[in-house]
């Protein structure tokens, strides 16, 4: 493993989380220089995380002679510019989510890094939570059979920074902010080679006085027949709700990343400072998580990114994945307006996935619909009569 | 309270649950006669529940001189006939869910009982679970503000009886079986006077070799802007998953009716018989519920029905509600085919519901997007500049 | 089933819960007259629950010509007098927990009803919660093997009524109030015929300015070797914590009766009234239960009591059980002072229970300590060498 | 931060967990040489974790010229020897739990490292789980007031290695294996300066054919009046149950480290290999954790240890702590035999802790027992009359 020296672009919440991770535990990597649009915030960040230098000059930060990796943590509207400069500088680039404000923008960024031949990773932390990684391995090992449905939910009461609320700068509302996580989680569970075919999305602005959506629900239909379903909201009350559910033909997975993780605290108040990201109350029943940067995937994410860089392989999450996510979000926004299923327009590199298979068992020429074991050990078969189409029960000896 | 003498139509799982409830605890009501299409099943039922008489004559059962209430628990395709006879006999009628196989059928049944002037209740048990009733009261008392979204999920590995699998007899697949519950739960939370405007539904048949859907997801848009979302499946693994989630502008409600209710058991096997409805395993970690007929709403349902009958009022769940549910399911099936949002065609009796209101606060002429309390007690306002449309932070003194 | 007409003694919280249960759902039994020490509270109760009469004359209430059952819900120090009068009147008697303030008092009450030959039931509701009843059935069916340990925990922030705090009137503090529940729950799980041998108890008064204990922990050793452990507190923060855990040689049971039962609500406040018994907050995350009188066992308790009365059998919980509980509590108080294990002094009617059995398997003459299945299907045996006493691993072929 | 080169002693489960942690993520530290009593296991370990060298020569491993830290992960009976050699070599020493088989042994080890002046850390991982660390910070910040009671529970079906079952090699049974964790967790919550005064312990051997205890429950009384309670078992069924509960005068904390952490999976079987440490089943409902080495505290433990070494400070867990734990376990074993509270014999370095304080509020000269807010905003006071000692209710105007 090679120690990495990093240019950090951005000093907001995400820059804090990234640097807390990189400088945490016994890590070998370190932020060498940080860029902020504000000299003040840059200096505070430098102090906060013991970073040697800060600057308000983006170009200088990226081209800093001692760094080999550039982490893009600036607001969405600056991603493309930052990536361009970093690619031109020939450095490894790690870009936060979402990759672009639109698929078109994401596509240009993908082209940029591919043309430059630089390493590029997509910082989609929630695909790297330890629970998610282990669950994906279980799915890949066949523990739940074929995946039929994935629900990914990410909701909280709304972002902390002003620019997040400005669709011109971000590309949209809750979908752009939160839906990008959900979509990529879903893709990891249904299989990245499983083409997203079309999308149905409903959006609304129910609580906040803004032009973009503060609530959205969407269905994504994949080539295998699997359905991805995401729910995002900036109006959830009670903290930050991050849950995933996966249904398969032979099993089920439920993940709760934040509000119910085995840490429950009641306090009459008076003691605590920070409880957890997006926590709404400091008294009553609280549900902190243990180690946020681990539970939210940041630790495993950087391990994969730098490991890939060391080993000359692709990371789990690439700029192409970011582009696919943007393409699906574009289709969501189109569908929310057209109110029909919209195709996902996409330069697809993933191949073909067969339909989830139904293999009908037969019994004396009739289709077996279901087998149930009776208390006495015999089996009840529900059969569909091949001639009449009628459904009948049949009790048979054991197995 | 007047003790009721009941004609029970049907001896399947639902007849068992109903009679277990009626004959349970210190109840004053009793099944006097039971009708079954099979003399054998009728006799077994009579024995099982100490019912004085059984018959295979539907008309005779309904017109039994000593009963005043007819409970319709026969398969869906027989509901209309049973209701007609009972209405003609002038008896109070309680009909299991779904009311009809289609809205048209349900409408005819509604007309029948209204014409006959008999008492008619819709046996939608899951709207009567103690948790649901208490949650609805909380919502009505304003505990979570305006309801913006309701998720109702009902999934299991598939029905136990052959006729359930035959769409000709039932009217469809998992939607007809399970979606009817979800829809009415959703209506109770968004308000029964809140008109269901249109519906988007996706269905698929992924596991069982049948013609009807074994999986479906739907969105229901209500007049207020609230969204109801249901997920139904006959392919869920792990038992019976009955969960509801309600989001409001000021709060959140999560209900789990079956798999996680505070009863957890691990057994190495060898001991137990019945664990719970639709349980898949008899060893390992099991999640029974305490008192199924109470937790699933049967007890409170019959209390409301007979209380309404005693007091000459409408029950909480009426044939009109059953008709609304069928109308929404019809729209779901149309949408699953057309793949667009389909209007809910309905003879609406519920009035008009205003849109969920956004009341934008202003600060020095700018729109306040969000207020956050800082650790030092000051407040951070996120403002939208009235002129430029830009979003900015502003720190102000406390409160 | 015979409808019962009841004399209710007492108008406090417990009188309310009992009457709410008796008059709830479709019950056939009714309170005919209520006794209160205060005419005002009696009148309010009469109004609240539609009871025909109230009186401040205990004797008159008990001897009311139209009642056949007397429910004793007055404070502990009045139990003996009430039971004496009711026994003398020849009526069925149901007495709330604890039976007496001491085993001596309980013993006299037991003698009184046995001498009078009247029906007597011990109203220990928490042994009748639907979860507890089902769990006991599972244990009796062998689902978890031999019970080795039971933890019963009942804690809350302290009683609502003044007399509860006065040890002269109640017999003690948190043990008398809450420990009686735990002890009888434990007995139900280890088996009522399993003699409680001795007790170790620690008590303290940590928060409230009272003379009696506001916290206690105790261990009860049963003849089989099983250990019962109870934790009671009047200083718990966060609501009412009612949990039981049962460990067996082949399984485990965890019951949560109140704070985590599948009903979770976040409210920003402003809406709700009553949340749940002993709830501490009306905003933030709240955990109501569905139907308190069902979940806390009142419904099944009265069904058993009146069923026993109808059928001429003993109820599940008798005055003898109440006497055993008092005997164990007496031993707890002695142990808290002496700081040694104190024997449970008891007129034992329960027979003899064998020690939990260890049947050691042998392999080639050595004792098998453990078998583990390896990933390749072979088994690893941990053996204790018969000669040397050394422990060694041995890998063997499958099965 | 200085990169550390490590001598690892031991190749069992604990050696694996330690090395997985050290070599995991982007860590800068590495195992340079591993010692095993078996050349074969040493070679396999070397291979498994890419360790440059293995040896069966303990002395050579410890004195390896390129290592500066020795991690003692050999069986208990070898701790003292290993520590002696390492101290003599002047290296930093990290020793796994329990420190010694007895307090006497632990004391000698403490003296050894203090005499040698080497850095010494006690590898008590469960005091370092992210949840535990955050909970301790909350307690220290006053979030739950004064701690009155801590329950720590650690149970599973029994160890995997033969030597663990041999009390001659380990010092005892489940207490030595698991109780050491619980005791130190309890000390962290009640405060390390809070002297453990005396101990009451019950042990039994209920399931396994061994001479040492397979079940134990103990109470530890601290100088403040706080009670620590631990439950350990080698006969638990259902996996590994690691839970802590902390009660304070103003709050409550519940931690679940293993079986309920927001990861739930049902599988019909056929897919998975390793589920989790001590998991009993590979099908049905399973409860894996995300990242075991993080959730079980190994990551934060080594960060603290090496951080302390870098900074010249003591780690959170020292050999003195290990000695205190052994002293408490010794008292437990004495109490299990004597059946009385046994004093904890200890060379105490921790100072004096005041008793948890009761500050009684008065109202018109009477002691206030409790305040409750009524629905109308008035307050109900429960008062103890200063003269009569009677308890009375008093309704007063708001606050």
> What does the average pLDDT of chain A come to?
95
Total beta-strand segments of chain A: 19
Poorly predicted runs of 5 or more residues of chain A: none
Instruction: Please give the oligomerization state of what you see.
Output: homotetramer
Report strand % of chain A. 25-35%
- How far is it from the N-terminal to the C-terminal residue of chain A, by CA? 55 Å
What's the total helix number of chain A?
A: 11
Q: Give the C-alpha Rg of chain A.
A: 24 Å
Name the strands of the widest sheet of chain A in spatial order.
12-11-7-10-9-8-15
Look at the helices and sheets of chain A and give the structural class.
alpha/beta
Largest interface here, residues on each chain?
Answer: A-B, 63 and 65 residues
What is the N-to-C succession of helices and strands of chain A?
Answer: EHEHEHEHEHEHEHHEEEEEEEHHHEEEEE
So what's the overall shape of chain A?
A: globular
Major β-sheet profile of chain A: 7 strands, mixed
Percent in helix of chain A: 25-40%
């Amino acid at each position: 493993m090679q120690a990495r020296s990093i240019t950090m672009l951005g000093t907001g919440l995400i820059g804090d989380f990234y640097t807390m991770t990189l400088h945490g535990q016994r890590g070998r990597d370190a932020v060498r220089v940080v860029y902020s649009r504000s000299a003040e915030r840059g200096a505070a960040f430098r102090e906060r995380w013991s970073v040697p230098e800060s600057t308000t000059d983006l170009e200088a930060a990226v081209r800093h002679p001692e760094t080999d990796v550039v982490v893009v943590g600036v607001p969405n509207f600056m991603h493309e510019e930052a990536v361009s400069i970093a690619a031109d500088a020939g450095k490894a680039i790690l870009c936060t989510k979402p990759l672009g404000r639109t698929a078109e923008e994401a596509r240009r960024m993908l082209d940029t890094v591919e043309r430059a031949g630089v390493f590029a990773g997509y910082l989609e932390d929630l695909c790297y939570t330890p629970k998610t990684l282990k669950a994906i391995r279980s799915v890949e090992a066949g523990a739940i059979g074929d995946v039929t449905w994935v629900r990914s939910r990410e909701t909280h009461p709304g972002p902390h920074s002003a620019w997040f609320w400005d669709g011109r700068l971000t590309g949209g509302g809750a979908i752009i902010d939160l839906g990008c996580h959900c979509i990529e989680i879903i893709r990891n569970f249904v299989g990245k080679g499983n083409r997203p075919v079309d999308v149905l999305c409903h959006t609304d602005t129910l609580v906040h006085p803004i032009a973009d959506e503060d609530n959205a629900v969407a269905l994504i239909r994949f080539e295998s027949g699997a359905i991805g379903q995401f729910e995002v909201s900036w109006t959830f009350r009670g903290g930050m709700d991050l849950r995933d559910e996966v249904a398969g033909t032979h099993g089920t997975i439920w993940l709760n990343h934040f509000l119910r993780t085995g840490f429950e605290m009641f306090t009459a108040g008076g003691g605590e400072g920070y409880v957890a990201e997006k926590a709404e109350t400091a008294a009553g029943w609280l549900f902190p998580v243990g180690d946020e940067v681990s539970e939210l995937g940041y630790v495993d994410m950087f391990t994969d990114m730098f490991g890939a860089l060391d080993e000359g392989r692709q990371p789990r999450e690439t700029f192409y994945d970011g582009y696919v996510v943007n393409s699906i979000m574009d289709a969501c926004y189109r569908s929310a307006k057209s109110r029909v299923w919209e195709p996902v327009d996409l330069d697809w590199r993933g191949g073909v996935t067969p339909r989830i298979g139904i293999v009908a068992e037969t019994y004396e020429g009739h289709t077996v619909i279901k087998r149930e074991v009776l208390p006495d050990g015999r089996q009840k078969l529900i059969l569909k009569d091949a001639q009449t189409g009628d459904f009948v029960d049949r009790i048979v000896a054991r197995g």
